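Reviewers of the previous submission asked for a worked example of the structure-prediction workflow described in the proposal, so we include one complete record here. The input consisted solely of the amino acid sequence. No template or homolog information was supplied to the procedure at any stage.
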Amino acid sequence: MLNINFVPDDYIQSNESKRTNMIYLVLFSICMAALFGTFLTIKVRQRNLDEREKSMDKQLAQKKEQITQVEKLQQKRNEMWNTALTTVELIEPVAKSLILAALTNNLPEGTSMLKIGVIQKEPSVDPRKGKTAPNSYQAKQAAVNPSSAVSAERLLENIIDIEGLAPSDLEVAFYIERLSNCPLFTNVALVESREFVAGNAKQPSASKVFRHFKLTAMLQKDVQLTDEDISRLAMAGSLTSQSSDVSR
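From that input alone, the workflow returned the following C-alpha cells.
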C-alpha cells in the first residue's frame, strides 16, 4: 500500500528551519548565560582581590608605622645612652679635694707647693701607627649595646702640672717617688729644677737657696679607690715624713 504524504514540502522545510533556529537560539542563550556567569565570577573575584590588596596595604602601612616608631624609640634610646655616658664621664672620677690632699700630703719636709694646674688633652698617638680605629667586633658591640661604645671624653688624659720649692734635689726626688707610688697618679716626670734664691738682696747672709721644680703627672684612668685607700692618702703626709726622717 502506498504511503501518500499530503503535507507540502515547503511546510516541512519551514518547520525544520524553525526548529534549527530555535536550537541555535537556545545554544546561543546558554553560551551567553555561561559567559555572563563567568564575567560575574571574574568580577566578584577581582573585587575580593582588590579588597584583600587594600587590606594588605593597610596592614603594611600599619607595620611600617610601627617600624618607624620602633626606630625612633631606638634612636631616642641611643641618644639617652650617649647622654648618660657623657654625664657619667663628665663627673669627676676623683674629687679635686682628694687630688689636692694627695699632692700636699706627699710633700717632703721643707717642700712647699706654689702652683697646681690640671689640663685635659687627647692621648698622644704614635705617628708611625696613627689612630687606631675600632675593629669589627667593637663596632658590632657598639651598635648592639651603645653603653659599650668609648666616647671622646673617656679617652681624654688629665695632665697635672706641679710647681713648688724644695730645699734640695733630694726632696724633689723623694716627692717624685712618693707620687709614683700613689694610686692616683702615673707617669710622674721632672720637667725643670733650677736654683732659686729667697731673701733680701741687701743682706746676702740672710738669703736661702731653694730648688724651684716643675713636675708633670697623669691622673689614673678609671681609678677605683676604697675607703682604705682614701684614709691612706689622708695619712700619707705623716707616714712619709716619718719615713724621710728615718732615711736621712
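The radius of gyration is 49 Å. We consider this example representative of the routine output the project will generate in years two and three.
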